[in-house]
Amino acid sequence: MALKKLSKEKVGEALAELSKFRLIAPAKSDDVVVFKQISDPAEAYLEYGNSTVPPKKFAFPQTETLFRFVTGSPDLTAKNVEEEGTTVIFGLRPCDARAMAIVDKLFSWDFDDPYYLKRRELTTLVGMACVEPPSVNCFCTSLGGSPFGTEGLDLLLTDMGDYYLVEALTDKGEKLEETLSSQLEDAPADDEKKAKDMAAASEGKIRRSINTEGIPEKLPDLWENGLWKKVSAACLGCGICTFLCPTCHCFDIQDEVEESGEGRRCRMWDSCMFEEYTVHASGHNPRPTRKERTRNRINHKYSYYPAHFDVIACVGCGRCINLCPVNIDILEILDQVVDA
Amino acid sequence: MVDVNKLREKAREVISREDVRELIGYRPGTYGFRARPAFVMGPDDTGELIFTPACVNNLASYIVLEEKLPVKRGEEPDLRKVAVMVKGCDSRALVQQMEEKAYDRDRILVLGIPCRGVVDMAKVQAKYPDVLEMGEIALEGDKFVLSFNGTKEEVPREELVADKCLRCRYPTPLVYDELLDEEVERFADDDFADVAELEKRAADDKWAYWEEKFSRCIRCYSCRNVCPMCYCEDCVLDRLQPQWMRRSVDISENTAYHISRAYHLAGRCIQCGECQRVCPVDIPLMELNRKFYKDVEDLYDYEPGTNVENPPLLSTFKVEDKEDFIM
Amino acid sequence: MNGKPRIGVYVCHCGTNIAGTVDVEEVVKFAETLPDVTVARNYSYMCSDPGQALIVDDIEKAGLNRVVVASCSPRMHEPTFRKTLLSGGLNPYFLEMANIREQCSWVHPDPIAATEKAKRLVEAAVVKSRRLEPLDAKEVDVEPSCLIIGAGIAGIQSALDIADAGFKVYLVEKEPSVGGHMIQLDKTFPTLDCSACIMTPKMVDVANHPNIELMTYSQVEEIGGYIGNFDIKVRKKSRFVDIDKCTGCGICAEECRMAGRFPNEFDENMGMRGAIYMPFPQAVPAKYTIDKESCLFLTKGKCGESPKCKDACQAGAVNFDLEDEIVEFKVGTIIVATGYDVFDARLKPEYAYGVYDNVLTALEFERLVNASGPTGGKVTMIERGKKKKKKGAEEEAPKVPESITFIQCVGSRDKSVGNEYCSRVCCMYTAKLAHLVKDKVGHDCEVTVFYMDVRAFGKGFEEFYDRVRREGVKYIRGNPSEIYKKGDKLIVKAEDTLTSTPLEHETDMVVLSVGLVPRRDNREIIDLLKLSQTSDLFYMEAHPKLRPVDTASDGVYLAGVCQGPKDIPDAVAQAKGAASAAMIPMASGKVKVEAQTSFVNEDTCRGCGFCVELCPYTAIELVEVNRMGWPVKVARVNEALCKGCGACAAACLSGSIQQRSFKDWQLLPQIEALGVK
Amino acid sequence: MAENKDFEPNIVAFLCNWCSYAGADLAGTSRITYPSNVRVIRVMCSGRVNPLFVMNALQQGADGVLISGCHPGDCHYMHGNYYARRRFNLMRNFLEYLGVEPERVRMSWVSASEGAKWKEVIEEVSEGIKKVGPMDQFKRRQLNW
User: Fold this and answer.
1) What is the CATH number for D89?
2) Looking at beta carbons, which residues of chain C come within 8 Å of A71?
3) N or C: which end of chain D has fewer CB within 10 A?
4) Touching check for C224 and chain B: CB below 8 Å?
5) ipTM of predicted complex
6) How many domains does chain C have?
7) Residue (of B112, B106, B128) closest to B31 by Cα position
8) Do C447 and C464 share a domain, yes or no?
9) pLDDT attached to residue C1
10) Among A169, A160, A117, which Cα is nearest to A5's?
């Protein structure tokens, strides 16, 4: 497929074109980069490293109404995701796109989640290759990803200086190229090779790594190992590592009911690091301390998920390392798993 | 400057005592300039302990974060002391915790660290984003000296120091069993100019300001969990009956969360700044806490975490308390 | 709780009081749509018998387990409808009322607005009623005994009344003798009864009454518990004299090496006593006491070869090994009758009290005119700090003052010393003392009174004041600004404000009519009983008009000047009032305690003590409990003490302490229902 | 916020049983009329009112909140109103700092004999809120329902 280019001068125009869809792009809120729906191309902030919060919430909202009801009445009004319309997530990083591909497996596993899958179907992912690894703690390459990875993406942009190199990866991507036909031009012939070199250079700059081989198989044997107590000692039990993880997908379902009887059933992010995550109605908690919870987080990503879906539920984005308030470092934990 | 050898020796002595169960201190982090909490269970664990301006965590939180699993039949609970290293600011958390009867004084053994300021790790990270291998930070005079990758750089103190240290009133711990360094006299004060500035804005403007911040909140509860004063067995904000605040993450519930959190710290927040430090989306939580702090000081001449004997602010009153706002 | 809610809603017309404005039919229709509402009705007068019968009938037939009455204020008919529920076999606390009369139909003349508001109020009541829980109104037994703190005239009167009624009384007095201030006085106004003559029989009575256990030279150290069941701990200070053996003969006092060396407190320090002493001859008990601060043997460990008092005592009562004794007992009620102090005249330096010997307080002057006082009742010029002359040395006859000047309102009605109040007794005791001067010193002695106003409000007061003026006492309206000495004379500088004439009044002696102030050791009792103070710092009564002898703590009553300045008959009247108030629970043997009390979820309480600190009734304490093997402190409510204000619930951060019927869980839905437009 | 002539604020009021609720009852007995937009929750003492109730009321739909108790020194429970005074002073200042106009969070002392004052209080509160307009930016139902 022929590569295209999008001149930086035309980015605004392209975004304006795309805003006929629900357009999600990285934007600054004070100094924090977050993905949000934009209506004005000027809001988009494309010179970013990576967003603090991954764009997963546009497939899997932090709070989502599943249906509405009135107590005592059998009638339900289900949410129609279709109403949200076609969505374009513009400029997400390859790791976050790959994470969506990984999470897709869960939501289409034993039961097809209509809300998630419909939203994914309506969404086109426009990636932005990492010419430089955004963080010193990036380790995507250890998990089979790459700063220029395309898994999960429909279109990949690469910053070539004055313009973005545009590569359509799927039918959806091609369709989007058509939408942007008046902003796109043909790319120079040697850009493909240039991009490959840039990818290799960027991969070479990734400094943190873990050899994951054998970890999924080994973890079950370490259930009672003393390492969990040690690595979790400093844990505060907050939701940073899980809420900011692009592959974490746990949710809770709650009814929010008014005194009038009107209510809605919602699904909302939950975190296995929260104490009440596993509390039973009886008060019993099978994961009573942060030790069990930390162990679960690592096992879920590196053991249970690969057991079911053949892929580790971690993309090496490094957010959990960067933002943990007490410097709990998943790579250090995995090193200890390897050494145990 | 704390002599690291002396520190480790003292730690070894303390953890060897029969009446001490655990010592909480600092050790180097896993990357960059970070330091992190260390949990020393025996004399052999003391070799990694450090104290540097990278030791930003308030370890007082861990005293109340401890998980008390059911004691097995026939066993006794381990009620030996926990030893903890605290800076001046952190020590106020201990004072406030004891004021609130969280534990008795003899349950802790406090190793006080007089402190002239710690770094704002976010500022360090921004300035040296590429440092991966362990770097070290020391405060020498009015400069931070950063050693990494075989080089040394000096950076003026004010460039990297945490904001809270610029208005620190209590550089020397207010409670301790032993001081690990010479006392540091008060070198700064707090005029709450930041709060006063925000107070002056128009109502709409203020709401818009906070709406922007609160809309970013992902309700990870790190601000609550890290707080040395947030240690209820069961936080009311987690409860479903009654449900003060819904789990939905939207501007209404987020705002309710932040009002509740800040109000629950009124007359209790000791200004360690941990909430704001840990917030992944940079919500200026201290601007909320500091509003209460300022009002509490102005209206009731009360400063939390300075005297174990102080009665809890909102459980007391003076007949002459201000009431010009009452109709 | 009590199964799924089945709510009956009853909208009252109250004739046209409600129905004239509120569309009651519409409110009923609306109520029918609310969740869990089983029946909704309207009726002309819900409080009438047929109205109440409607509810009872529905409870039985429709199986209601919650009742909402939308009618008048709950302050009016909540008790009525609670009884209705009870007669229908339902717990009375399953009632919720919506006030659609006082706070709706009577104040909002627009029928549409009033109806709309009535619906909201009904909805709020319905949502709250869904979460109501049954409550028990508990009763506690009352110990038939009373502790009375202070044995002045008020304490004595209360003690005698209660003891005469057949209840046990523990009367605790700090001083070695009962009697208080009244026994220090010479005559009483306006009848000029001899104070000692009317007081001593009562003092003897309390000592001999079979139902009264008198503890003098004793202090209450601890009070725990609540109405009906107070636990009391009293320290009986050692007198170093075995009072069972002491005969009160007084030989010990004569022999004491320190005899006459120490100022006698009873004489306002004007007379002298030894280390072993009886404060005054009519003391009850008539026993001697060794003051351990002044006794040579007790301070230095040595008193000559051996203590002379001990050697002299033929009864063998002096015993230096005696120790303080702690006694513990239970009472059902407590009366506080701790009295007052007189204003410290040094706080008015312009009057030079403490500077010039012949500036006296009225209480000092009271001792001076008293026949049992230091001068044997002779009013003479005084020389302070004069040591007792050696035996045999010739005494110079003291001079008798030719003129005496009284200054009223010293320390009363005076913002500059923080006492805004009138002490109520000074005008009349000044008149009495002025009369006594004329009577004892003679009519030649010139008596002048400086006053702001003369308040002669009581029975016989005005007549007495008039009599005294006719006796030649000169009243000058004006507040003196300064007292200074000129030669032998004192000069009182003032302005006669009736004639606007500045004057310098020459006199031999000045008597300051000092006011009554709260006892300087007031704090001790406040700490023991958590009493409140009014702004004048006297103890606060439960209601200034209707509960003048009660305190906010059930079972604790006030008598006498500790509650505020009053004269003897008023103090006696209040003492009798406090006695009868205390006898009510003792006579009935049981008291009902508040049902809408607070309680603690001990699983979530973190034991911070915020609630303990603020509870005005000391109803909450921290107790150690075992939480899965760990010792933890949690708050616990003594429901007999809790009055159900709920202030603790608002202070609790973890929501662990809640007030029954006003739980967060019950109030938040109300807020929600009212918040909706 | 712009003034809206048609806007009728919705006020949730917390009244202590002994003084303010009785005062409001007296206003009724005396047939003193006042705006109908105030809805009362009766508590035993103003000290029972958790300042977070204010937040909750604003979130649940109220445009303003009033807390009313006994005058200082008159509290049926001795000190409840003093505790309330401290808590509300702080909460009111804090909400103002967040951009909630102080007109919305009011406190008053109304005794059982002050039926006329109750009317004045309600009128003043109501007028004050009218001036600042509705507060929709925090209402739960308007934001996610």
Assistant:
1) 3.40.50
2) 35
3) C
4) no
5) 0.92
6) 5
7) B128
8) yes
9) 45
10) A160
